[in-house]
Design goal:
The chain has 120 residues and is mainly beta. It is built from no helices and eleven strands. A hairpin with a 4-residue loop joins strand 5 and strand 6. Strands 2, 4, 5, 6, 9, 10 and 11 form a seven-stranded mixed sheet that branches.
Length: 120
Amino acid sequence: QVQLVESGGGLVQAGGSLRLSCTASGNILRIRTMGWYRQAPGKQRELVARAADHGTTNYADSVKGRFAISRDNAKNTVYLQMNSLKPEDTATYYCNADLVDSWYDDYDLWGQGTQVTVSS
């Protein structure tokens, strides 16, 4: 059984920093992409950042220059370092992974979500 476990998040003042972590576990053969999405109340879920296994990264325009995504492929873990946080970054953040397990089954996995609240 493959799954994602998230950690990090919390309450921080505007201008502060937080780091999110997400680890994939199970019989994993390959993780094509790992990334973070967020959803604020009343809004659609949106991409924040994602990283492919070959090194390519993508960021939402709203977080470029403030957030940094990184992967530790040996640990099947992705990190999101969030700096200069703004109240508009407040949302539930979800980890996502596109992976293949040892039986060559494909998965599009989501974490349970972690709350990030930025106070003004």
